[in-house]
């Protein structure tokens, strides 16, 4: 017999075991998540014969359209089945349950970020469509040093709080098709960034206020998970980041519409599934942007 329900107190140790076995993350990272982001009322569990066998998290987000429609949604995160219980349809059953749960709780759609390329087809069979894209490129220090800039732009970069980051983020993405986050989830990203040795930053050019979320992957590699600025200021913004965080390689992620001159490639990043009828069509032409997957 199996049962699906929200998580309860005293069950974290079993969830951590599944997380470790399925994702292979270090204990310190798993502990960090459960200390800083975990919420029982956002976590669904599937129990088989009384044992916790599968889990997923539903993080509240909003889908914002270019004409400023706002749809309540959830980002499914940490979808996992204990290795000894896999290939029994538990994850599918759990996701089907989440569909009905989210619909009953007035969520218009759910989004998720497949951890691997082959998982796109898995989620497609379960009703998800590609809807969110990023541009990703790898730049070495020499390439960044030779990026052309305007001598008239003098910018600054400094760490900022989550609330300020969110204001800047939403302003930079206005008139776009994107996922908006609660301040507390931007703050969680800030904690992830700071734990790595970086931060979330405000980038200022006179009246233009941009932002960037960055994680240091190693002494030689930095991941710019998000940078939001007008196209004409992007090079200057990247150079300011390099002054702040020295490395040999910088992986830069931007919305698909931004940074074409940097090279790299546009790839699908997240998928969506509509639960309640809405006046919205998810197509590759929309080039929706998600940004934070807390990966």
From TrEMBL:
InterPro entries: Acyl_CoA_acyltransferase, GNAT_dom
Any Pfam family: Acetyltransf_9
CDD domains the UniProt entry points to: NAT_SF
Cited Gene3D superfamilies: 3.40.630.30
GO MF assignments: acyltransferase activity, transferring groups other than amino-acyl groups
N-acetyltransferase domain span: 2-150
Protein name: N-acetyltransferase domain-containing protein
């Amino acid at each position: 017999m199996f049962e699906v329900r929200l998580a309860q107190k005293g069950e974290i140790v079993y969830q951590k075991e599944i997380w470790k076995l399925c994702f292979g993350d270090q204990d310190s990272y798993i502990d960090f998540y459960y200390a800083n982001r975990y919420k029982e009322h956002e976590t669904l569990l599937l129990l088989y014969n009384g044992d916790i066998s599968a889990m997923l998290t539903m993080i509240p987000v909003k889908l914002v359209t270019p004409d400023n429609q706002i749809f309540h949604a959830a980002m499914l995160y940490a979808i996992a089945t204990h290795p000894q219980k896999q290939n029994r349809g538990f994850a599918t059953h759990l996701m089907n349950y989440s569909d009905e749960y989210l619909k009953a709780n007035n969520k218009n759609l759910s989004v998720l970020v497949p951890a691997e390329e082959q998982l796109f087809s898995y989620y497609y069979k379960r009703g998800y469509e590609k809807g969110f894209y990023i541009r990703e490129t790898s730049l070495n220090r020499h390439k960044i040093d030779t990026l052309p800039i305007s001598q008239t732009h003098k910018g600054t970069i400094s760490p900022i709080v989550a609330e300020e980051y969110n204001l800047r983020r939403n302003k930079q993405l206005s008139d776009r098709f994107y996922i908006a986050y609660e301040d507390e989830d931007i703050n969680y990203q800030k904690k992830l960034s700071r734990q790595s040795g970086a931060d979330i930053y405000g980038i200022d050019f006179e009246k233009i206020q941009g932002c960037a979320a960055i994680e240091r992957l190693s002494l030689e590699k930095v991941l710019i998970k998000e940078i939001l600025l007008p196209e004409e200021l992007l090079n200057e913004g990247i150079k300011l980041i390099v002054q702040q965080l020295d490395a040999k390689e910088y992986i830069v992620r931007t919305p698909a519409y931004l940074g074409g001159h940097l090279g790299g490639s546009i790839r699908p990043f997240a998928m969506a599934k509509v639960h309640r009828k809405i006046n919205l069509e998810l197509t590759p032409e929309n080039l929706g942007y998600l940004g934070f997957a807390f990966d």
